């Protein structure tokens, strides 16, 4: 893709799932890539699998002080950034809205929404121009039962991304990606085979996305081929939301 070779890219949550697939694609396109992830073991495994990664830092994005420190460390490798893929996130399936505790709510919102803000806030200080893509979800566009905290956090990302895009234009483009069902390790751990089949039955293409399909679109959004795109969210869901007006 045009304009990716040599770019300095940060991918949060880069040691598994969509994040790792995105790292692989950026590396294949000739970018220089660093990752943030809170799982040290997953980082070590990812570094062994993708030795071209320029830097890997263990950090929990829900901790603003830790994020600031991680960016200080990243500065030794990348004094400036060109692309940030704000991907780190968690999901917890609850019995119902009534069962969510304040601690569970904070854990999800602190990682998914606050973490996006903390990373973006530090990143823009290190970007003369570039692209930030924040990871939302179709859960931010419609009510999916059992995930009130996750849904709220992903809806917040959409509003945050629009505001950032307006304020940071024209030098920094800001976008949000809203995937549907993606077969990541996090998704696999939450769902039985029967539950996965039930989800697939509601997707016109009949399956979950592979993380590489999301990673490829993220790289496109960061490329010069998408240089007139900002302030919007993009749905990649196999047609799932085509069944309802969003």
UniProtKB/TrEMBL annotation:
Domain of life of the organism encoding this protein: Bacteria
Species of the source: Streptomyces cinereoruber
InterPro entries: KR_dom, NAD(P)-bd_dom_sf, Sc_DH/Rdtase_CS, SDR_fam
Family: Belongs to the short-chain dehydrogenases/reductases (SDR) family.
Domain Ketoreductase: 7-186
Record-linked Pfam families: adh_short_C2
NCBIfam families the UniProt entry points to: PRK07231.1
Matches recorded under SMART domains: PKS_KR (SM00822)
Name of the molecule in the record: SDR family oxidoreductase
Taxonomic lineage from the root: Bacteria, Bacillati, Actinomycetota, Actinomycetes, Kitasatosporales
């Amino acid at each position: 893709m045009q304009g990716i070779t040599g770019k300095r890219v940060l991918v949060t949550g880069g040691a598994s799932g969509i994040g790792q697939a995105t790292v692989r694609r950026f590396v294949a396109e000739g970018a220089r890539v660093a990752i943030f992830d809170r799982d040290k073991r997953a980082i070590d495994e990812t570094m062994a699998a993708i030795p071209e990664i320029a830097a890997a830092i263990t950090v929990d994005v829900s901790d603003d002080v830790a994020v600031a420190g991680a960016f200080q460390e990243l500065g030794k490798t990348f004094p400036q950034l060109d692309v940030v893929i704000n991907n780190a996130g968690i999901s917890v399936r609850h019995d119902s809205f009534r069962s969510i505790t304040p601690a569970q709510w904070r854990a999800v919102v602190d990682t998914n929404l606050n973490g996006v803000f903390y990373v973006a806030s530090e990143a823009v200080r290190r970007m003369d121009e570039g692209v930030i893509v924040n990871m939302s979800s179709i859960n931010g566009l419609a009510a999916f039962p059992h995930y009130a905290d996750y849904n709220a956090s992903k809806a917040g990302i959409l509003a945050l991304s629009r505001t950032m895009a307006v304020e940071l234009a024209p030098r920094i483009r800001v976008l949000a990606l809203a995937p549907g069902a993606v077969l990541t390790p996090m998704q696999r751990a939450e769902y039985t085979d029967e539950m996965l089949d039930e989800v697939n039955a509601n997707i016109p293409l009949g399956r979950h996305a592979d993380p590489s399909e999301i990673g490829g679109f993220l790289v496109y959004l960061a490329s010069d081929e998408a240089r007139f795109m900002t302030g919007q969210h993009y749905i990649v869901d196999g047609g799932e939301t085509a069944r309802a007006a969003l």
